[in-house]
Design brief:
Number of domains: 2
CATH superfamily of the largest domain: Acetylglutamate kinase-like
Low-confidence stretches: 1-9
Number of strands: 25
Radius of gyration: 27 Å
Strand order of the largest sheet: 5-10-2-1-13-17-18-16
CATH topology of the largest domain: Carbamate kinase
Structural class: alpha/beta
Largest sheet: 8 strands, mixed
CATH class of the largest domain: Alpha Beta
Helix content: 25-40%
Number of helices: 15
Mean pLDDT: 88
Shape: elongated
Strand content: 15-25%
Length: 446
Amino acid sequence: MNLLAPVDYNCAMNTRNYVNFFRQTSPYIHAHRGKTFVIAISGESILAPNFHSMIHDIALLQSLGMRVVLVHGARPQINERLHLSGITPLFEQHIRVTDSDTMQCVKESVGCTRLIIETELSMGLPNSPMHGSHIRVIGGNFITAKPVGIQEGIDFQRAGQIRRVDSEAINYQLQSGALVLVSPIGFSPTGESFNLSYQDVATKIAIDLTAEKLILISRPSGVVDGDQLLRTLSLAQVAELQETTKDPQQAELLNAASLACHEGVDRVHMVGYEEDGALLAELFTREGSGTLIMKDCAEVIRPATIEDVGGILNLISPLEESGVLVKRSRELLENEISQFSVVVHPEGLIIGCAALYPTTNKAVGELACVAIHEEFHGHGIGARLLEKVEYDSKATGISNLLAMTTKTAHWFIERGFVEVKVSDLPENKQSMYNYRRNARIFSKTL
């Protein structure tokens, strides 16, 4: 090694950033592996400049162990083929009126779009993200359909509705490690084909597979209220927006999300296709990039279990390194896990924790290891954790709560704690007090 060679600090910093990012995403990778994701991509997204990167991101999910069903739309492609054929597109009640000539254009457009997707998923050049992935793409007659029929005097002809999804066949392909690609065309037992809504297809497949996630990729980055992107929504909030939204595309997305959640899909994500990496950011970062919709989007506070040890360590390690918290080994944490409560994000990750330790004085307990992920500071999570610990304390006969801190004295003072001396501590806490750390001691009567 040439000790006199210049050091590329930018390269070193980029490497550290990458390593930190990879470590932060690993809990999401573990949580998502083996889960079923139904991803719906609009026809507009396939025409977007970012499509090449987006489809490779979808392939990455497959290679990381997620079971992926990809459903594509083709509305702009169909409209373009109709234009070239001299046919004027006709919509009634937001449904395409599909006569025989239009259906022929639908088949051609959907077939061409499907081939574009399969071509991208087959790429394996050494300098591409797909190198070595060997994604198997499987399609089939998974959707049985029937005609929409005549509604309000309008004959929709070859426009169809979903009658049945062959979920057993789709599951078989997923279990074999294939990515299942589904086009918005269904077939009847009489040999007819019908034009379907890709969002309806994706939603019905997600429901029938009891998928963990339905991911809707389209033009908006998510649900927008004015200029503000709404990061999380409950079903009650979705219902309110359904009544007020004037954007037809957002209304379609909200309808799909609401139906999926009501029928058993755990989470629905709305993601935009214009921002590079938006899908990965939505699935592998806490803040996401779009909108998450679920039945109950509030964080849950519950007693910790042995399975939470890794998540707690990830949360408290930065605070231990900075000296805010006393270091705990994995073995110690495993032995003391019954003393902990955790705050669980809707995505299943631990974003807060606190412990309640007994002392030699049965009426006195110690509040310790209070940690909130930095991205959730100011959300009131710490106050909710304190309420939980105080409730548990009273339930076990504890009437006085102690806390020791080197950094957050004002937080405790604002919540009714008063400062006390080392001599006021129970005997076992006095003997364990670290004078070198010189933490301030606070007490609160419950």
